[in-house]
Amino acid sequence: MDPYDLDPRDHRLSHKASQETFISLVQLDPEPILDSYQDDGLDFDPTRDASPSEDAGEGGSLENSIHSLKSSGSGGAAGGIGLNTVTPLGLSGSGHGAVYYLTRIQRYSSYTFSLFASLHLATTSVIPLLARSVPASESYLLLAREIYQTPLSEPLLVALPIVAHVGAGLLARLLRRRENLRRYYGAGDEKTHIGLGIAKPTARFLRSGWPRLSWIALSGYGFTAVVAAHAFMNRVLPLAVEGDSANIGLAYVAHGFVRHAWTSWAAYAALLGIGCGHMVWGWAKWFGVSQSAGWALERHTGVPEVDRKARRKRRRRLIWINAVAAAATAVWAAGGLGVVARGGETLGWVGKVYDGLYDKVPLF
After folding, report:
1. Which residue, of 17, 33, 157, 285, has the fewest CB within 10 Å?
2. Long-range contacts for 316-320 (Cβ within 8 Å, ≥24 apart)?
3. What's the pLDDT band for 94 if we cut at 50, 70, 90?
4. At 40, phi and psi to the nearest 5?
5. Maximum Cα–Cα distance across the chain
6. R_g of the chain, CA atoms, integer Å
């Protein structure tokens, strides 16, 4: 073919930009979506492989799909992906969802409670361990009560942080479940999961929308129960029966170990074991250490040397966190169970007061 015979008007030689695209860029001017993700978003459902076309088909248009994605983004505390959008609680302009703020409430309330726990650990374990005597340690406990058991400090340092910490965690879990149900399980039936080869009971659980329950959260629920029982026995019960708790101290605890040994040993072993484990792992989570701790490797790169180093790093962190939790439990148990629990029975009218208090509890 002679190049001089080519027609310059031939569309194959035209350098003009194509105007025959499926969706012209001139017509496509959507509202921008924030592409920055936060580490505490909604729990992702691995059993559903949703595509933009499916979301757009349900909404009827691309604008509805974009609007649905933007309005559903809210932060969370247990991994996953969420969009930084306006919160439904009215905190507009912040770029965070409701679960984001609930997670911050959990975090900062744990700081306050840790102050009380450290002071309580010192007066009920460390000082008795050093003094090797319950009567000699009572004065330090009474002195510490002037700090955290006043009408002002007790609600601020003890009651309010516990209520805020537990309440924020439960509310965040409920919000994540609601978002999971609306986003991933809002339409259809169990056929979606059963078609993937998932058993019917498992499919029902997935469709319930509940996020994964971590070991930190599970130990937190157990710790809440034993702390509530401890507070009832040492604070609420004396106030209800005697009108005050001035006579309640280390001798009261030692008296319970003599009269009700099995129940006391089980209760305080659970308090120390679950409490120290939850607090140490919780602080490891706030420092960003627990997320990369484990025995097995979550993601494999395919390079044996890299995977081996990553596995060793995860195992080292797991061992260190558990070692710190075991050390904290051992220190608390050395003074609390090694000294206070063996303090002996209280005699006289004070011992009768203690017996009357323990008799009020059906378990004892």
Report:
1. 17
2. 317/289, 317/290, 317/292, 317/293, 318/293, 318/294
3. low
4. -130, 55
5. 122
6. 30
Nearest-5° angle of CA 80, CA 204, CA 75?
A: 20
pLDDT, average across residues 226-236 = 94
Q: Could you tell me what percent of the chain has a pLDDT over 90?
A: 51
Which residues are within 8 A (CB) of 340 and not within 5 positions of it... i.e. 6 or more apart?
124, 125, 128, 134, 137, 250, 253, 254, 257
Contacts 24+ apart (CB under 8 A), 120-128: 120/144, 120/148, 121/331, 121/332, 124/250, 124/332, 124/335, 124/336, 124/340, 125/331, 125/332, 125/333, 125/334, 125/335, 125/336, 125/340, 126/331, 126/335, 127/335, 128/250, 128/335, 128/336, 128/339, 128/340
Give me the helices (H) in 5-85, please.
52-59, 62-72
The pLDDT score that the predictor gives to residue 301 is: 85
179 Cβ neighbours under 8 A, 6+ residues apart? 42, 72, 74
The Cα–Cα gap between 87 and 272 comes to 38
Report pLDDT for 52.
36
Burial class (CB in 10 A: 0-12, 13-18, 19+), 212: exposed
Residue 157 pLDDT greater than 60, yes or no: yes
**Per-residue tokens: 245:** 């708790």
Nearest one of 244, 327, 228 to 280, comparing CA atoms: 327
Per-residue pLDDT, averaged over 174-187, amounts to 80
Contact, 214 vs 282, CB < 8 A? Answer: no
Entry pTM: 0.69
d(CA 274, CA 221): 10
Q: How far apart are CA 200 and CA 212, in angstroms?
A: 18
Q: Which two tokens stand for residue 230?
A: 């401890």
Percent of the chain exceeding pLDDT 70 equals 67
Name the CA dihedral angle for 77, 115, 263, 247, rounded to a multiple of 10 degrees. -150
